TrEMBL record:
N(2)-acetyl-L-ornithine binds at residues 134, 273. Binds 1 pyridoxal phosphate per subunit. Pathway: Amino-acid biosynthesis; L-arginine biosynthesis; N(2)-acetyl-L-ornithine from L-glutamate: step 4/4. May also have succinyldiaminopimelate aminotransferase activity, thus carrying out the corresponding step in lysine biosynthesis. NCBIfam families: argD, PRK01278.1. It comes from the Bacteria. Gene3D superfamilies: Aspartate Aminotransferase, domain 1, Type I PLP-dependent aspartate aminotransferase-like (Major domain). HAMAP family: ArgD_aminotrans_3. One of its GO terms (cellular component) is cytoplasm. Its EC number is 2.6.1.11. CDD domains: OAT_like (cd00610). The gene is argD. The lineage of its organism: Bacteria, Pseudomonadati, Pseudomonadota, Alphaproteobacteria, Hyphomicrobiales. Keywords: Amino-acid biosynthesis, Aminotransferase, Arginine biosynthesis, Cytoplasm, Pyridoxal phosphate, Transferase. This is Acetylornithine aminotransferase.
Length: 399
């Protein structure tokens, strides 16, 4: 039987077709407006059609799109200097996606030990429930069988331990260990937070055993938790960090950040990207930082996040048969449902609100960082109506 679409059947898409966006709103082809608390899976950090981003992209598009990394790209130098000025990092490599940023991070860690005369040290300790991308290496790093199955032998060099279990991490360290890779907040894994103490203990173990600490802040970074990067809440600094999603505000852009020492092995010819760091991406990335680093922006994220947390806590108390737990930090929030999360998500969409599914029967709320308190309350009102509908339906079913 002939396929109904020439596209790969790798997505279970919702039957929605959007024509345009305005801030936190998406407008479907039929004119229906949806409150977008999915934000392209935490990508649209400044919402849709943000005027500063639009102007930056248009201005660059009229000058130069692509030259490759055979030449200097001034926008790369500018964005890299700004990123290193506000983070732990000394060096930056630009990519097109989060998975590519993680690939670069893994290669950077392995090359570090190789350059120091220890090529046997290439193993990376990762955590159960993690998601680091869809490449052959990053699915192995994540370790989830549903992503690995059918793609041949798992790429070697990755060892998973339980998330949050520092004793298991210490037991896993051996003479072949190169690094520890962790998401400060697991997104796909169900909005699970690494505690401040756990992050500090990981940093201490890396220092003790000569390992590199790699952070995956692809989803939780760039202001999503109310600080520029989530690890800042724990007061530690990584050696390497992968960034993407929000840094491009909707334009494909990722980056691998590293200290001078960690990046020392990445010399000419060891890594590259044809499109990575192209002028269009650099213009948008710089524009995103213009907004996110402006005075008061992250403070407003924290203020709006408080509105969400208080409202979600109230919903949990009022609908204990629908909502089991509220998770997350800042504007990276999770609702662990007591009913099938897929059913809850469909009911939420009936209320013209968009969210994102995750592991452990969790729905992610990832609103744009520009969301106002009023828009947060509107989203909470729609969630309340959805919870009421689910409650009524489950009550009827029980009867």
């Amino acid at each position: 039987m002939a396929a109904t679409t020439p596209l790969y059947d790798t997505y279970l898409r919702a039957p929605l077709r959007f024509e345009r966006g305005e801030g936190v709103w998406l407008i479907a082809e039929d004119g229906t407006r949806y409150l977008d608390f999915a934000a392209g899976v935490a990508v649209n950090s400044l919402g849709h059609a943000h005027p500063h981003l639009v102007e930056a992209l248009k201005a660059q598009a009229e000058k130069l799109w692509h030259v490759s990394n055979l030449y200097d790209v001034p926008g790369q130098e500018s964005l890299a200097r700004r990123l290193t000025a506000v983070t732990f990092a000394d060096r930056v490599f630009f990519t097109n996606s989060g998975a590519e940023a993680l690939e670069c991070a893994i290669k950077t860690a392995r090359r570090y030990h190789f350059a120091k005369g220890h090529p046997e040290r290439f193993h990376v300790i990762t955590f159960e429930g993690a998601f680091h991308g869809r490449t052959i290496a990053t699915i192995a790093a994540g370790g989830q069988q549903k992503y690995i199955e059918g793609f041949g032998p798992k790429a070697p060099g990755f060892y998973q331990v339980p998330f949050g279990d520092i004793a298991a991490v210490k037991t896993a360290i051996n003479d072949e260990t190169a690094a520890i890779l962790v998401e400060p907040i697991q997104g796909e894994g169900g909005i699970r937070l690494a505690s401040k103490e756990f992050m500090q203990e990981l940093r201490a173990l890396c220092d003790e055993f000569g390992l590199l600490l790699i952070l995956d802040e692809v989803q939780c970074g760039v202001g999503r938790t109310g600080k520029l990067f989530a690890h800042e809440w724990s007061g530690i600094k990584p050696d390497i960090m992968a960034v993407a999603k929000g840094i491009g505000g909707g334009f494909p852009l990722g980056a691998c950040l590293a200290t001078e020492a960690a990046a020392a092995g990445m010399v000419a010819g060891t890594h590259g990207s044809t499109y990575g760091g192209n002028p269009l991406a650099m213009a948008v990335g710089n524009a995103v930082l213009d907004v996110v680093l402006a005075d008061g922006f992250l403070e407003n994220v924290r203020d709006v996040a408080l509105v969400f947390r208080q409202g979600l806590a109230s919903l949990k108390d009022r609908f204990p048969d629908v909502i089991e737990e509220i998770r997350g930090d800042g504007l990276m929030l999770g609702i662990k449902a007591k009913v099938p999360s897929a059913d809850f998500l469909k009911t939420i969409r009936v209320e013209k609100l968009l969210a994102v599914p995750a592991g452990e029967n969790v729905l992610r709320l990832l609103p744009p960082l520009i969301t106002t308190a009023a828009e947060a309350r509107e989203g909470l009102a729609r969630l309340e109506r959805a919870a009421e509908a689910v409650h009524a339906k489950s009550g009827t079913a029980a009867a």
